[in-house]
Write a structure and sequence with these properties.
There is one protein chain. The protein is α/β, with parallel strands linked by helices. The chain is 16% helix and 27% strand. The strands form seven sheets. The protein has a ten-stranded mixed beta sheet with strand order 19-18-17-16-20-25-27-28-29-30. Helix 5 runs parallel beside helix 7 and helix 5 crosses helix 9.
Length: 524
């Protein structure tokens, strides 16, 4: 038998070695077998001691899932640290997440996707007491990933031809708020065309410090996340100059499978034990069998509105075909799965990192690490997968999702959609909506909504008056009154169906633009 030539790799040399079967070989290369120094710190207070005023702080988490509250509580004790820029998907809620640092007045600016869950922050921004750089969710995570990978900027279709491109969302109002004008204007973005499509340039975000919460972390910093704990945490951990991880469980080096590691230890500087309890923003349970026969406690007006919402969802369900990959927004879209036609099975994608999302859990199944994009408790179906936000938005922007169904404040006859803010009054945030409508040629976009606003004014208009989420992106509009197909190229609407009991005259009276009527107009 001929000998086999192998190479023994040491830190100093490459030593050729002849291996023969059943022969013991003594290697004299310089190989270090010393145990790596532990990155575990005993005290969170000590671990955050190097955070300084003016730092850019990256805060992992989505809603209240995966939020590093142990580290944030330690930083909140250091009142000398001020003028922080907090970067997070959300602005926290109450005394969790960045909310802790708002309560201690340590944050001067927030870069976020959906800060509207924190009413205190929303009020501070509208009064001119804090700065906000509002960023689409997928763009935010990609800006963080770009810096971690040494990329200074990139082009994306998300936000093109919207307020994100033209910089019309103020970063900060003057003291006294919206009525007193803008102190710091929004940031205008450069745009270019590639392959006939418009893209805008987004700069990378560089973090000074990252606070992360993970499930299992070993003593050299390798991290494993659990379910939707990943969200922004993986890219943030890789981004910052100083990354500190609080772990649900600190485990010995070597006890984690190399195949399971989400963040290698090279990115992590310090590890502490997490002591903060896990919280859930919205506990949503599956209806119990006994609740189906219970009498409604809603007023007649609210019961009618609920009935109309279900009518819209039932019609929208017909657009979901067997095997589709589908993203459903919050509100009416969440009602759609209950009305899927027999034999139709779809894969529901949630932008915080789920493919194969199941129904709401029973009380026994509730898990704080398993939530949807609306921060509600959910379950997983057999065959489901979980991943971080960067992976999620690659699926979305790349057109791998078949269908995206969203709510809206306004839709134009050309398919423009507005659904994220009312200037001076409401700043919920962009969330993932701009990304979800960014590739309408590959991902069909459907809007489901009430036909009119609460004041009776039309929500389907010739032109949107609110800031756009996307331009010429919507292909279909479904309301409690009717179904419209949208000709995005030519900017026309066509009425294709009337809901039961609805007349053409009623639809004309409640629609704020002209539309064509299909010759064989059908009724549901």
């Amino acid at each position: 038998m001929s000998p086999m030539l192998a190479t023994y790799v040491s830190r100093a040399t490459l030593v050729p070695v002849l291996f023969k079967p059943r022969v013991t070989v003594l290697l004299r290369g310089r190989w270090s077998s010393t145990v790596a120094q532990s990155k575990v710190w005993e005290s969170p207070d000590e671990a955050v001691k190097d955070v300084k005023s003016g730092d850019v702080l990256l805060c992992g988490g989505f809603g209240l899932a995966g939020v590093p509250d142990t580290l944030l509580a330690a930083l909140a004790k250091r009142k000398d640290v001020t003028k922080l820029t907090g970067v997070s998907n959300n602005a926290g809620a109450g005394d969790s997440g960045l909310g802790k640092l708002f309560n201690t007045k340590q944050i001067d600016k927030v870069v976020a996707s959906y800060p509207g869950g924190n009413k205190a922050f929303e009020a501070l921004y509208l009064k001119g007491e804090v700065s906000l750089e509002l960023c689409p969710q997928g763009t935010l995570v990609e800006r963080l990933r770009a810096h971690a990978a040494g990329i200074p900027a990139f082009f994306t279709p998300t936000g093109a031809s919207t307020a994100v491109e033209d910089g019309s969302i103020p970063t900060r109002y003057n003291e006294g708020g919206f009525a007193n004008g803008v102190k710091i204007p929004g940031i205008k973005k450069e745009s270019r065309e590639f392959g006939g499509r418009k893209y805008i340039m987004e700069p990378a975000i560089a973090g000074d410090v990252a606070f992360i919460r993970a499930w299992k972390v070993d003593e050299v910093g390798n991290c494993v996340f659990r379910y939707t704990q990943q969200n922004f945490s993986t890219v943030m951990a890789k981004n910052a100059k100083l990354t500190i991880v609080e772990a649900d469980q600190i485990v010995p080096t070597g006890s984690l499978s190399p195949n399971a590691i989400h963040v290698p230890g090279i990115y992590v500087d310090r590890v502490v034990q997490s002591t903060a309890p896990k919280q859930i923003e919205h506990i949503k349970l599956a209806p119990s069998p006994s609740s189906s026969g219970e009498q409604s406690t809603l007023s007649a007006e609210k019961e009618f509105a609920q009935k109309m919402r279900h009518r819209t969802a039932k019609r929208a369900a017909k657009e979901l075909k067997d095997g589709f990959y589908v993203n459903l927004g919050i509100g009416i879209p969440t009602l759609i799965p209950a009305y899927l036609e027999p034999g139709v099975r779809v894969w529901l994608q949630s932008e915080n990192g789920i493919l194969g999302m199941g129904p709401y859990p029973t009380a026994e199944q509730v898990d704080p690490d398993l939530i949807n994009a609306g921060k509600e408790t959910v379950t997983l179906l057999p065959g489901a997968s979980v991943f971080d936000s960067s992976e999620s938005f690659a699926m979305i922007r790349g057109g791998h999702v078949d269908l995206s169904i969203l709510g809206a404040m306004q839709v134009s006859q050309a398919g423009d959609i507005a659904n994220f803010m009312i200037p001076g009054k409401l700043v919920k945030g962009i969330g993932g909506a701009m990304d979800l409508v960014s590739n309408p040629d590959q991902t069909k976009v459907i809007v489901v909504m009430e036909h009119c606003a609460k004041d009776g004014s039309p929500k389907i208009l010739k032109e949107c008056t609110l800031p756009l989420t996307g331009a010429r992106t919507v292909s279909q509009i479904i309301t409690e009154l009717a179904v419209f197909d949208v000709d995005r190229k030519n900017g026309h609407l066509e009425l294709v169906e009337l809901q039961e009991g609805v007349t053409l005259e009623e639809v004309r009276a409640k629609t704020g633009c002209d539309f064509k009527v299909r010759g064989n107009l059908s009724k549901l």
